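My current task is to audit a protein record that another person submitted. I need someone to confirm that the token line plausibly describes how this chain folds. Take the sequence as given and treat only the tokens as open to question. This is what I was given:
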Amino acid sequence: METVILAVVIAVVVLGVLGGLVVGSRRKKSLPPPPPAAPDITVPPAEPHVGDEAETPRDEPRRTIEEVDLPDGSAPPATVELPPTEIEVPEPTAGRLVRLRTRLSRSQNALGKGLLTLLSREHLDDDTWEEIEDILLTADVGVAPTQEVVDGLRARVKVLGTRTPDELRALLREELLKLVGTEVDRTVRTEPDERKPGIVMVVGVNGTGKTTTTGKLARVLVADGRSVVLGAADTFRAAAADQLQTWGERVGAHTVRGPEGGDPASVAFDAVKEGKEMGVDVVLIDTAGRLHTKAGLMDELGKVKRVVEKHAPLDEVLLVLDATTGQNGLVQARVFAEVVDITGIVLTKLDGTAKGGIVVAVQRELGVPVKLIGLGEGADDLAPFEPEAFVDALIGD
């Protein structure tokens, strides 16, 4: 019994010693280092607000508003020197169509070549003459003019008998010149007697190149030594006035314009007025392109004409037609002729796929001559119409 009690006591003593060792070892472990002291942070200076100085003010003398020398308005304001617009020198108009003959003949001489090929056949029967008629009709010559040419050719070929290529070409040339007309006055009337300026109004539907034609016509006149004022009376089409003014600036012509959507008759009136005051030779008025089927728009065109004639009679009313539109162009021509007295035709786009016979058809339709033709996109590709050069281009060399 005593032995058991002694063992228990020893066990209790051992456990007590072991517990003390464990606690002591925990106390001896290093504690985590204390957190470092907060660093000193320098606050950046506040950014200046509107009206504040961007830096610390310095002590320096300052002037009051009464001590500052202000301009008294006597000195002229400073002006910015802009580079002058370079004035172009247009190509002379004399013989311009002849110089452009190569381009015209490339696109048009299918008519002449086709006719010469058929006329060169040893035997010209009815079928051949029908083919000749088809070629002329396809070229937009028109039914009545085509019949005239065929009848004339048949009679002369029958008399001629044997036909050499040169004889056929001369024969065809004479017949085509009859159709086109060589005795008609094709001068663009810009020099009225005893007064200045000559007044020219340009009309036509949208898309025919009307504004471009007006600008090119200004170049033609300047090239012939005339002074020009342009009237931008096309106030309905966006940027039309800008386009016309650019054309004018190239050759030194003044442009009169009004607000977009403004009264075109007022612009036309002012253009003629300024042209008279400036003493220029010619005033060109570009009118708004309009659908020939819209009565209201056509009435507006008549109003422009009446307002302009309060200054002086119009010397020319040029109708611009797209040569590629064929019979539709003739419909347009009829309607415009009813509203304003057309005095001349300008055929544009007479290159490419255009058909040269439209020259004959439109002259027969209106009873007025083709005076100008447009042969391309170049600035100097508007040329006075010359029947001989035109026919020579049609039949080729």
In short: The radius of gyration is 45 Å. The longest helix spans residues 2-28. The CA atoms of residues 203 and 319 lie 5 Å apart. The beta strands are 198-203, 228-233, 254-256, 282-287, 316-322, 344-348, 370-374, 382-384.
